[in-house]
Write a structure and sequence with these properties.
By secondary structure, the protein is of the alpha+beta class. The chain contains 14 helices and 27 strands. Among the domains are: 183 residues, Sandwich (Jelly Rolls), CATH 2.60.120.430; 280 residues, Alpha-Beta Barrel (TIM Barrel). The strands form seven sheets. Strands 1, 3, 4, 6, 9 and 13 form a six-stranded antiparallel β-sheet that branches. The longest helix has 29 residues. It is globular and about 65 Å long. The chain starts with a helix and ends with a helix. The relative contact order is 0.12. The N terminus is likely disordered.
């Protein structure tokens, strides 16, 4: 592991030339453009010289902020910004960096990068500017030589007004030592010194080595035999019933279906047999991961002919990429290295053998739920509890809204009820009569934040706008009365648009509309769900943010409220989930990643290495188990994403429990089994 990390750092360091120093934090006098927000700084002796030690408070976004002294920096000649950090403590510290153009707000007009500073270790955080130009390594969110690219929209490196190093909502105080900040690389050139091809025949990075890397196809048999012995020796956790519930725990009423119940001020799921159940789930148990090979042929040392056996059928023509594949118009030929490796490992019967291996792995690691987006055959044959999902399509959007994946659908459009009914009808024949099915999610990470202002900014014929204006007219006698309350100057109702800033009255009115909009959304879904699958739990929409009015509406309607929470642990305060929602909460997604096993991007929450990744998993699950509102958490996802990026958005994250060769990460698997074994006693009786 140490050798692999050193190799990566050396390779990344080679990409830094040319290098221009911005800040030497060991200098006696630091530049005046440094601003401290919820932090304090002290010059300290460090490694024979000096550096700056920074203490970060427990606050939402404590940061060291660097403001351009003359309006803006011109960094157009460079590839990106780097900062060298050292962690003097025994606790890993997640850290992030942001580079701003004018108007940056954390999402718009800025790029961000994240990472983790290991205990008693150094981390060089690099943010490569997104300049929108064609790149050598297109369609990848992390690239060889640099690692993760700066996330966010295209920015202008010639107009950088600020940058900052911050901790994302730390749950405790932390300290880091700042050494230097510098500009690296040449603009427009990404990892130009990486030899081609850089992907080996197994879909692994070719130019580095690490523990667990597969070097020969003969190793598949050896690994398969070793895992077989391990699974036979420890097939399931002790004290679990056939549902994965707590066999040795208290018993409740057995209804034959999963349900929810609050016991001693803590929410629980209850199995069909009446045992307590805490849902420990695995998302995306499937083999569909594809990466573009169109116009990338030189990247790979091996690609089979399309009709070559036994790999025929592993190519697909795909279209409609969400992002990252603009150079080929978002469409082209894609290939699955994961399936190729499954063929090498299991032979002709690989689908069945892979599926049966997954069914054995998950209980052995302590999982008791197959999470969202599993393959249809995995769900249909599942011997363990599972959840299903659906998506509402065919509803016109709110034209004036914004959203990462898509604009929010207009629930006041006449097409909405029929679309919901179509989206839920399939439950009746597929899952409604299976007691192993816990419930269903509908949609994922919707753009709730764009609803109210989007409705105001939409054309007059937009149904959501018409409904919002109806409510405002009902409350205010005239546009003059609304203008007085909102501090706006609209000439008439038809010209009313979103004001530049919202006062308390406008915020309250728009929040009330968002609640009504969301309540209509959730209630319509629940009504169809009860019609087609009355015994299954409706588990919400998997919020990626916490817009309070929409969350309250979900809690008022759904059986379970769901969030995708990418943090180091559950937020301990200043979070809507800490309010009494009156319903249990489940986490639909979380993950951690690292760069020590040949991957180019950590994912949304970075850790130092596989040991640190495993430690974060334990800490996260414990934080969920300790929170009275939560009834489970589901990891995203079963396998790593392709190192050259999944085809539709370029994600290439180290977020799997298994790698592209179908080899489990031993550190993560062992940590999962260990913490899952303690969950029931911990949650029921308090921390051990």
């Amino acid at each position: 592991m140490i050798l692999a990390t050193v190799a990566w750092c050396a390779m990344a360091g080679a990409m830094d030339a040319p290098r221009v120093e911005l800040v030497d934090f060991g200098a006696e006098t630091l530049p005046g453009f440094i601003i401290l927000n919820n932090t304090r700084l002290e010059r300290v002796q460090f490694e024979g010289g000096h550096a700056a030690q920074v203490w970060f408070e427990k606050a939402d976004w404590p940061n060291v902020f660097f403001k351009a002294p003359d309006g803006a920096w011109d960094w157009s000649g460079y590839a990106g910004l780097a900062v060298s950090l050292y962690n003097p403590t025994a606790v890993s510290v997640p850290v992030a960096m942001r580079v701003d153009n004018e108007g940056a707000d954390g999402i718009n007009h800025c790029n961000t990068a994240s990472g983790g500073v290991p205990p008693h270790g150094r981390f060089v955080m690099r943010l490569r500017f997104n300049i929108g130009a064609p790149e050598q390594f297109w369609g990848m969110r992390g690239v060889p030589g640099y690692g993760p690219l700066g996330q966010g929209p295209v920015i202008d490196p010639s107009e950088i007004v600020a940058f900052q190093v911050f901790l994302p909502r730390p749950q405790q105080e932390h300290t880091l030592i700042f050494e230097k900040a510098w500009l690296f690389g040449k603009s427009g050139a990404a990892s130009g010194d990486i030899p081609m091809p850089f992907v080996d025949r197994f879909g692994q990075y070719k130019h580095a080595d690490w523990p667990g890397k597969l070097h020969d196809a003969a190793e598949f048999g050896v690994r398969r035999e070793a895992e077989e012995k391990a699974l036979a020796a420890a097939p399931v956790l002790p004290g679990r019933d056939r549902f994965g519930g707590w066999a040795d725990g208290p018993k409740r009423e057995a209804t034959g279906w999963f349900r929810t119940e609050m016991i001693d001020d803590k929410w629980w799921l209850i199995t069909p047999a009446g045992t307590l159940f805490f849902s420990l789930g695995m998302d995306c148990v499937g083999t569909w991961e594809l990466t573009f090979v169109e116009k990338r042929e030189t990247w790979f040392e091996w690609l089979p002919e399309p009709d070559a056996q036994p790999f025929a059928g592993l190519y697909a023509e795909v279209s409609g990429a969400h992002s990252g594949a603009e150079i080929i118009g978002g469409k082209g030929r894609a290939f699955s290295f994961y399936r190729a490796n499954l063929i090498r490992k299991y032979g002709e019967s690989w689908p069945e053998q892979w599926r049966n291996t997954a069914y054995r792995r998950l209980p052995a690691w302590g999982f008791n739920t197959i999470g969202n987006w599993a393959q249809a055959d995995v769900l249909e044959r599942s011997p363990m509890p599972y959840v299903v999902s659906s998506h509402i399509g065919g509803v016109p959007p709110i034209v004036g809204a914004t959203g990462y994946w898509a604009k929010m659908m207009d629930v006041y459009d006449p097409a909405f009820p029929e679309a919901v009914d179509r989206a839920l009808a399939w439950l009746k024949d597929r899952h409604a009569n299976n007691p192993l099915c816990i419930g269903y999610f509908v949609d994922n990470e919707l753009a709730w934040e764009g609803v109210s202002l989007g409705a105001l900014n939409s054309p007059a014929e937009q149904p959501a706008r018409r409904e919002l204006l109806r409510r405002l007219r009902e409350k205010y006698d005239s546009i003059a009365a609304l203008n007085a309350a909102w501090a706006t100057d609209a000439a008439d109702w038809e010209s009313l648009r979103a004001p530049a800033s919202l006062n308390d009255a406008a915020t309250a009115d728009l929040d009330a509309f968002l609640y009504a909009f969301a309540h209509r959304y959730f209630q319509t879904i629940l009504d169809s769900g009860r019609k087609y699958a009355p015994n299954l739990l409706y588990m919400g929409c998997r919020f990626s943010s916490d817009p309070a009015p929409a969350v309250r509406a979900c809690a008022d309607v759904a059986d379970v409220v769901s969030f995708n929470l990418y943090h180091t642990r559950i937020p301990s305060d200043k979070w809507v989930g800490d309010q009494d929602l009156g319903k249990p909460i489940v986490i639909g997604e979380f993950h951690f990643g690292a760069l020590d096993r040949g991957m180019f991007h950590t994912g949304l929450v970075a850790t130092a290495d596989q040991d640190d990744r495993a430690a974060h998993y334990v800490d996260y699950v414990r934080s969920v188990a300790d929170h009275p509102a939560f009834v489970g958490c589901h990891w995203f996802q079963y396998i790593d994403e392709p190192i050259t990026g999944r085809w539709f958005d370029g994600e290439n994250y180290n977020i799997g429990f298994v790698d592209v060769t179908d080899t489990p990460y031993p550190e993560l698997a062992a940590a999962a089994r260990r913490v899952h074994a303690e969950v029931y006693e911990r949650r029921h009786g308090g921390k051990p």
